[in-house]
Design a protein that fits this description.
The protein is an alpha+beta fold. The protein has a domain of 110 residues. Helix content is 30%, strand content 13%. A 3-stranded antiparallel sheet has the order 1-2-3. The chain has a two-stranded antiparallel sheet with strand order 4-5.
C-alpha cells in the first residue's frame, strides 16, 4: 500500500522530532537514573530495569475524557484544514468528529484478531496510538483482518485519493 500524505506527515514530524532531540538522546542519562537496576542475574535485571522504564500512560480506546479519538484527531489532522483529518487509506479529508460515527473510524495496523482482541485496562497494544490510524470506514471493513501487503491476482486494490482532488 502506498504511503498517504497523512502517513508521510507523521513520518516527517517524527524525523523532525528525532533531529531536535538527537543531542539529548546521545547524552548520558540523568545522574542516578539506573541506580536501582540490579544486574545480579537476568531475571532480576529485567525486573528492576522494567521498574525504571515502565511509566507509560494508557489512554482509553473510547471515553468521556481524553481517549484515542482525541489523540488521533490531532495526529491525523489535515495540514490544509485543522478542522479535518486525513484518512490513512483514501487520503481523503473528513471533518473532525468525536467517536468516528460518520465518515471514518480507527484502524489497527496490527489486526486485533491477531493478538489483542480485548480492550482491557492492562492491554496497552490495543490502544497504542502509534498503531492506530483514522480511516474510511468502508475501506477498513473491507480489509478485515488481512495483513498489509501488495494485492495479487484474485484481489482488488482500493484506490487512494490525492489530497484536495
Amino acid at each position: 500500500m502506498a504511503m498517504t500524505n497523512s502517513t508521510t506527515h507523521r513520518i516527517a514530524a517524527f524525523v523532525a522530532l528525532l533531529l531536535c532531540v538527537s543531542s539529548a538522546v546521545l547524552a548520558d542519562p540523568p545522574p542516578g537514573y539506573y541506580d536501582s537496576v540490579d544486574a545480579t542475574d537476568s531475571t532480576t535485571l529485567r525486573t528492576t530495569l522494567h521498574a525504571v522504564i515502565d511509566d507509560h500512560q494508557r489512554f482509553p480506546y473510547t471515553s468521556g475524557s481524553t481517549d484515542t479519538w482525541d489523540i488521533l484527531n490531532l495526529a491525523d489532522e489535515d495540514p490544509n484544514d485543522s478542522g479535518n483529518i486525513l484518512d490513512v487509506y483514501r487520503n481523503a479529508s473528513y471533518p473532525k468528529i468525536s467517536g468516528g460515527v460518520r465518515d471514518y473510524n480507527r484502524e489497527h495496523t496490527w489486526p486485533k484478531s491477531y493478538g489483542f482482541p480485548d480492550n482491557t485496562s492492562d492491554n496497552y497494544p490495543y490502544t497504542d496510538c502509534h498503531m492506530l490510524f483514522l480511516c474510511n470506514g468502508s475501506y477498513n471493513s473491507s480489509r478485515g483482518n488481512n495483513p498489509f501487503r501488495n494485492c495479487h491476482a484474485g484481489c482488488s486494490e482500493r484506490t487512494t485519493l490525492e489530497n484536495n482532488g
